[in-house]
Amino acid sequence: MEVFRVVTEPIRPDALADIVADVTDGAVVTFCGVVRNHSGDNATAYLEYEAYPEMAEKVLADLGKEAQSRWPIGKVSVLHRTGRLEIGETAVLIAVASPHRKEAFEACSYLMDRIKEAVPIWKKEIGANGEYWVEGPEPARGTAPA
Amino acid sequence: MIRVRLFARCRELAGTAQLEISLAPGATVRDVKAHLIARFPDLAGLASTLAAAVNSEYADEEQVVNPGDEVAFIPPVSGGSGKWKCFVW
User: Fold this and answer.
1) How large is the ipTM?
2) Order of strands, edge to edge, in the sheet holding A76-81?
3) How many CB atoms are located within 10 Å of the residue B31 CB?
């Protein structure tokens, strides 16, 4: 079973590896997106993530299928946390299994890029210079057609 | 009634996360957005950057909305690397 979920509790870095692993897969790549202590030249105190959870989970699942249509990979799972996150905490965890490592690395990287383009989850940075929402230059975009 | 949901900067500018509105039959996402901006003028500056979703699916502005639908306005998310732009969206 694959997991695509928006959660409020802390995410352990190994939370998804067993979920995606299969005897046919020789690679499990996981990526942790972690809260860092700066943004450009500005110090970050903490982050607040807000989601449209019902849609976010649906788009995450769509992106999993999108990656599986582009690479010969096995299971994919993603967790994304919302609420207040401190420096060093995991905001997003992606796991991709595949028979060979190259596809798993590529699909994992692709998924992170697409999550930042398409999944309705927003990040607010709070630091010494105030607080502001981090917004990309373009409107959010949906899932690419299969 | 149509339920409208707002998030992030859009929610803060409007001062609410959710509202219910009533529009004439045949109203589209564009009409919902126009209604929203009339009610919350602070959103006008953000309007062109907002994506929309109807019942948790991305929708274009021509899509008709029906009573019972949930329309969400989605401010830009934090953006990708730009390296996948060859795809047709």
Assistant:
1) 0.89
2) A4-7, A76-81, A90-98, A27-34
3) 17
**Model pTM above 0.95:** no
Angle at B76 between CA A81 and CA A36, to 5 degrees: 45
| pLDDT per position as a tens digit, A105-117 | 999 999 999 999 9
The length of chain A is 146
Burial (CB < 10 A; 0-12, 13-18, 19+), residue B12, is middle
Any A CB within 8 A of B25 CB: no
Whether A119 sits inside 8 A of B77 (CB atoms) is yes
C-alpha distance from A111 to closest chain B C-alpha (Å)? 10
A7's tokens? 């959660």
